[in-house]
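Example A, followed by Example B.
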Amino acid sequence: MDNDFLQQMKRQAFMSALMRGANSSSNDDLLSDNDSDKSQADDSFFIASVREAEVRVDAMPLGVNLTRVADYIVNPDNHVVGLPGEFHNLLSSYLGLRDYYHALIIGEYALSFFPYDIDLLADSIQAAAGSAQYDKGGDLIQRAEKINKQYWDWRLFLMIADYYSSQLSSCSPEEFESIYGKGLSITEEYMKYLPWDDRAYNKMAEYYLIKNERQKARAILEKAIYDDIEGLDGTRQHIVAPQCCLTMIDKILSETIEYDRIVEIAEKGIQYTAQEQPSARMGYFKFRSAMAMDALITRDHYKNKQTIQEALREYQCAFDLNGDMAYGKTIQERYAALSQNSQNPVIDMPLIKRPLFSDNSQDSNK
């Protein structure tokens, strides 16, 4: 989205909100879903394009009336139009706010203009699963199946695979095997057509774990993490598999004492996160690595002070990277126990919270 356009629309929305604030009886355009009947009937509500609707939703996600925006867009009398990418961006905003119901309404409207756009199909299938509208989702999947899968992207494969795994939670026992089979089949095709996408292998592992087939899940994850994978052109290469590393640690190794393997997988996960948009968090890999090193040290009765210091440094790095402090308390407790062990205490390495970036830009020039 053009930055100047975005800023202009944000300013317009802000000024409109100020003007409406001067008259409480007309304060209705961008308010919550509890708008009064009078405000709903206000003719001043107007959206010129799908792009403007996206700006409204993104600029004021807590105040914008998502129902009203969706209803206005899909009303053919309002002539709100947009390109497929603009509809996709708007749907992403609704999906990000977990408003799956209205996302599906907008998605079906967009597909009336662009019936075989793979992004819009993926968005709408995700919305159908999120709102448990499986009849509509099934129709959308049938439409997607008419497109040659060599033109599918990872989102369409993954959203359909996720759709079937979601449907397993609401289907009858008699339907379970059929739906499970459909999900397994689409995931196999995902691996076939996009063999270098680690999300395909991760999804296959998740399907195996649904039936507690842990060895199959482990084998497919290890294949993605360790093996060279053959592509459609016959060439083989090692793939970037951060999500597989995460699932391997959390779902396969977490209940074992394979601490050396956890450290190894965590290191690979950290290596794989060295990309522009990693699908797994580096801080979490550091945290799990530190925990595994800690367990090895405890098992060894704290004999080696150097390994204790290495584990403390790993904890410190995880603490620095853990911006939201989701597991900060655990780090603090384990750090205290490890550094103050009775066999080889380390008293000169206190745990501190350090900023990732210096506010003083001149420091880097010294």
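Example B, a separate protein, is given below in the same form.
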Amino acid sequence: MRNLFIILIFMLLFVIFLLLIFNIFKPKTLISNSISNVNSIYSNSIYNNKQNIIIGVAGSTNQKAMLFAIHSGVNYFREDIRLNSNQEANIKNLSNKGAHFIGILDYETLHLSTPCTSNCSWTLQDWNNTVEEAVKAYPEVHIWEIWNEPQLPIFQSGFQNGDPYNYYLMVKSAYNIIKNYNSSDIILCFGGDNVYTGQAKATTNNPDFQWAYSAWRYGLSNYCDMISLHVYTGDTFLMNQTAYGSNETVGEIISNQLDLYENLTDKPIFITETGISSNNGTGFYNLNNSQYKQNLFLNQSFNLYLSKPYIRGIIWFNLIGYVNPPYNIDFGLLSNLSNNIQPKPAWYTFINYINYTRDK
């Protein structure tokens, strides 16, 4: 009898041990199933900005990943607009399945490479003709972003030579063309000006802000419904870390810099790119990143953005495994392993934010 009792005790302990192991290693312990329970420096700020906000992701040519996202509840995708029948058919098909698109009118629309290698002397009239053709080809698109990071030399050519005045003229033309087709369409200006470039504190003196300031003083406010900004942290820092000798956290600097843009423009802000990779990369990249760190960054950054009542949209870059040779950095929320879509931990947190902002 005593031996039987001892055996039963050991069996009970073994069952308890298995339960503990299961709870430690099951996948959901790596992800945030409830936004309110995530430990972050901005954990209470989300309640400030819950309604009427767009949360989406940079799209992909991987149709399987796009359909997976739509079926998971993602409705908004940011896409470069290309004038070709394949993309036109894809966007029409995905729109019929519930997708909405932020269309970028840029070098891709003009059939240019980056950096530009041919047809690099295009004019404002070429731009106007291309915008008109794009609006006709994509009646499903109702949010238009004018260019991508126009202040960066790699994305400059022809009339878009980095001059803020030329950018102002491009936006003015595009605004009038688009509104003539649909007056309720939304125009995003600045093309994703970079908010954080390693500055020690928020400042109006950094080149990106100065470029935006110069474009704005020409009268850009008359042709913008919102401004678009990009927020990265050098693909390495979390929002609660300090960097480059600053006494402020990266999150504090970004928060204050966002306020400077809002003070300049008095327009709603659409963050059309933000993200961090889930791997270390190769070459000179040595990021100490991981899927766990990507999840932390997404939660911290989204809580920060949602604390700002003037932020009306957030787009994560990227949907699926963006690989950038030779550095091989992966910003995707999804992986494609053996042709099977595999969500990363940050994916579930991302979906939680979408569901939370819909729960009004």
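On Example B: The chain has a mean pLDDT of 87.
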